[in-house]
Amino acid sequence: MKKNMLSFLAILLTSSLLNATESYLLEPEVAVKMINRKNIQFLSIGKEKNIIVGSQRVDIDALFDVDVLGNMKCEPFVICPRKLKKYLEKRGITSDQELILYDSQYGINSATLYAVLKAIGHQHVKVLNGGYKSIQKLDPNQETYDKYLKEKKLIFSQDNNDSFKKQLMNKVESLNDKLSVLKPLLLIQKVHTGRILDLNKTYNLDRSKFNFDSLVDRDLLKKAVNRVREEGSESNTSILDACSMIDIVGNRYGSYVSDVYSIDWKELVNTKKKSLNSKELLEKMFIKKGLSKEKDIYVYCMEGSQKAFFMALALDESGYEKVKVFSGDWSVWRRE
To answer: Taking a C-beta distance cutoff of 8 angstroms, is the pair 65, 72 a contact?
Structure first.
């Protein structure tokens, strides 16, 4: 009874930690305590060979519902909710689960799925800051495993005399035994170790929870650009390019729009840690670029909306509350 109570308290603690802050980011020191917890599902976004144990994979390309002519079937949603519902159900995901998203692209792909899930009203979603490698660094078994593996490789790299071969092979066999014991305990595993899918799961869509506030379609972006073009710096709107393609929107209507800002998404990240920069660094950078928290900020990226979503979440992390994302890309914009 006492053991069950402790388990319940542990689950309650990790659940409360997940929702203890307004930040969309989840630090690895907290996330590592949630692995294999009931009703907490880790989602690997992309095609990585290694995933956090118990994760399911999500194909980022499956989240976009745009045809070759640039038609978005359910604009401003990047994918029609019913189609997304079916996709999530095939992954064994339900609407009441707490989801932790991660990828190996600094969180760019995770930011897209985060925005998509929030748009359909999914309540509990976080993005793991630093991806699966941030968890790998915290795994003591991984450190020992890597040590044994290094010792084994060192043996095979040496040119030894025949008299020592038997002794060395015995050492290799001992190392193999240690590696085989540690391998199933590692927090980072090959893809095939994901949980068995429950195809009987149902993802409940509640249209009353749909939220379009952070998404804009092509027409709304066009109106915002026109507004900035006419009003200039007096406008209560800013246009932000996340992919260094400023001329496409800036000159779209015959003259340059002076209040179009350009910030390369690479300025948001710490390349060594493979993670988003701290809130303090991000806020300092956005202020230096001239972005006001008092204005509506429309973010776009014509090379694909993933980086626009990533930029929007970085802004949100920095305290910018009036951020909207153009959910299309160049194929959608050029239809005009």
So the answer is: yes
